[in-house]
Amino acid sequence: MTETLQRSRRKVRQGTVVSDKMNKGIVVRIDRTMKHPLYLKTVRTSAKLYAHDENNDARVGDKVRVMETRKLSKLKHWRLVEIVERAK
Questions:
Q1: Where are the domains of the chain?
Q2: How far is residue 48 CA from its own chain's centroid?
Q3: Whole-prediction pTM value?
Q4: Which ranges constitute the DSSP H helices of the chain?
């Protein structure tokens, strides 16, 4: 019971794989839109997350879901949960 509550508090993000060159690792770009605080123009921003991909399943262009986890290396503290949509 407590394990499920702790897992549900982990952040989950959805993004696009931009690199799969690492062994058991991928780079995921998370895009979001926000309004500029002063000028109120809609601005698109993105962030790159380094995620652990145990089976090397994900390829560049795939839409994936990643979940926050413990620190796995210097940069990786996300892991691949599922591949939502394959690249065409």
A1: 11-85
A2: 8
A3: 0.86
A4: 2-8
At the fourth CATH level, which superfamily is domain 11-85? Answer: Nucleic acid-binding proteins (2.40.50.140)
Q: What is the pLDDT of residues 3-16, one digit of tens each?
A: 666 667 899 999 99
Question: Cα–Cα distance between 58 and 87 in angstroms, integer?
Answer: 9
pLDDT digits (tens, 9 = 90+) for 29-77: 999 999 999 999 999 999 999 999 999 999 999 999 999 999 999 999 9
Helix (H) or strand (E) holding 65: strand 63-68
Q: How many CB atoms lie within 10 A of CB 58?
A: 24
Residue 17 DSSP code: E
CB-count burial class (<10 Å; 0-12, 13-18, 19+) for 53: buried
**Whether 10 contacts 68, CB under 8 Å:** yes
CA dihedral 70, 73, 16, 61 (to 10 degrees): -140
